[in-house]
Backbone:
């Protein structure tokens, strides 16, 4: 029986972690044991935390990211809200209707968790939408757009609130009662966001990294916050080419990417401890990415470029090239990665420009543990060749709005992508999910 070790926290009590695991679970059976660490020891969490897709899911072993089934014909543009069965075994539904002027908007980015904890409400286009009826639940959310759903409470969000015209107050917010609780006020700062729009909170909802503008100097500071203790853990002044930052899913590490365009400074992806100590450069490559966990529960950053889908373990910097891409002649073809499936660790989700597909990919090393030098000159470990091809996104990706930018639900049983249906319509969001 495999063991998934999820958290690597030293201080929170076992009871708190266990309650979090129970609160966000759905009663689903599965053979995997889930462990957490408190006080330096590992303890078993309820197996119901972990979500397993049914056996009917299309799992593919091999290095191709293109399926053996055909896409929906372009002349069969999906109707708004109507589910359509696909050859892959999944269902597709168009969940926005921008072409009709309903102004639902689009989901923001692959790193943005758009589902709430029980996957009944979507955060799309700065509105909250019922995931089933697609009716607007809340037309305006009193938080900045760079916000996170709670992993345990389906009514709660975390984000930055404007107070007296200044966005510098970290709060939790209940969208049903409209009540908020102040967690931390950044008195010397303004224009605060979660990681410059690409940050997330840790799974136990304890840690977050906030990027703010220093009110005196006008420069960007990165600040690590303990949400539970309502205190600052550490901070650094961002480099001139800073792009984004986030806490890892376990809360043990912080990742900072310095690669802003129009900058002559060197590109680097840097890992820190949660208090911004122990600086370690993971890579000097620039790719779309997200922070997830591998099959062993270790924190990783998963990346997609033209040739590869790969990941780097945060604890030791080892890079693994997943064997669904080069050097075997099958390119990944750029795109986006989403690892918001916090209840299905060991997988991340992709949308590929070149292959035109969306799906999931297993985050694991090969049993042979073979090393080689890839075509970028990097010494890497060979990964497995296991993927799930869910369908085609049918987008020309001719604009940022129409780029698929796949994002995935907490259980990993649903994903959303944007598409212009090969220029047949305005960009809309589409959902792929398992049949009910």
Residues:
């Amino acid at each position: 029986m495999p063991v998934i070790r999820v958290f690597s926290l030293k201080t929170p009590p076992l009871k708190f972690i266990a309650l979090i695991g129970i609160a966000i679970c759905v009663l689903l059976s599965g053979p995997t044991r889930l462990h957490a660490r408190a006080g330096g020891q590992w303890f078993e969490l309820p197996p119901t935390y972990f979500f397993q897709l049914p056996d009917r899911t299309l799992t593919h072993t091999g290095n191709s990211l293109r399926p053996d089934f055909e896409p929906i014909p372009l002349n069969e543009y999906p109707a708004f809200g109507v589910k359509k069965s696909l050859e892959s075994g999944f269902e597709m539904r168009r969940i926005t209707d921008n072409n009709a002027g309903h102004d639902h908007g689009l989901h923001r980015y692959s790193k943005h968790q758009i589902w709430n904890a029980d996957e009944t409400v979507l955060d799309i286009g700065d509105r909250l939408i019922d995931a089933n009826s697609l009716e607007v639940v809340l037309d305006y959310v009193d938080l900045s757009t760079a916000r996170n759903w709670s992993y345990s409470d389906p009514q709660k969000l975390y984000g930055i609130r404007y107070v007296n015209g200044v966005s510098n107050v970290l709060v939790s917010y209940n969208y049903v009662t409209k009540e908020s609780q102040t967690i931390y006020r950044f008195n010397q700062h303004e224009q605060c966001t979660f990681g410059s729009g690409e940050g997330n909170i840790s799974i136990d909802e304890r840690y977050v990294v906030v990027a703010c503008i220093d009110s005196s100097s006008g420069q960007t500071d990165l600040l690590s916050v303990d949400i539970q203790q309502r205190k600052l853990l550490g901070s650094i002044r961002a480099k001139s080419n800073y792009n984004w930052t986030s806490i890892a899913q376990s809360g043990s590490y912080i990742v900072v990417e310095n690669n802003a365009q129009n900058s002559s400074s060197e590109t680097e992806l840097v890992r820190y401890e949660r208090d911004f100590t122990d600086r370690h450069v993971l890579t000097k490559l620039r790719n779309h990415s997200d922070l997830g966990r591998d099959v062993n529960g270790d924190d990783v950053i998963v990346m997609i470029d033209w040739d590869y889908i790969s990941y780097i373990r945060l604890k030791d910097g080892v890079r693994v090239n997943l064997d669904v891409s080069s050097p075997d002649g099958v390119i990944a073809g750029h795109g986006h990665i989403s690892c918001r499936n916090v209840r299905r660790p060991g997988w991340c989700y992709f949308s590929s420009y070149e292959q035109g597909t969306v799906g999931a990919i297993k985050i694991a090393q090969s049993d042979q543990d073979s090393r080689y030098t890839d075509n970028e000159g990097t010494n890497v470990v060979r990964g497995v060749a296991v993927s799930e091809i869910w369908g085609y996104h049918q987008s020309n990706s001719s604009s940022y709005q129409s780029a698929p930018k796949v994002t995935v639900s907490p259980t990993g049983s649903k994903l959303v992508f944007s598409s212009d249906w090969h220029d047949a319509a305005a960009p809309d969001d589409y959902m792929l999910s398992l049949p009910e």
Notes: The CA atoms of residues 240 and 301 lie 23 Å apart.
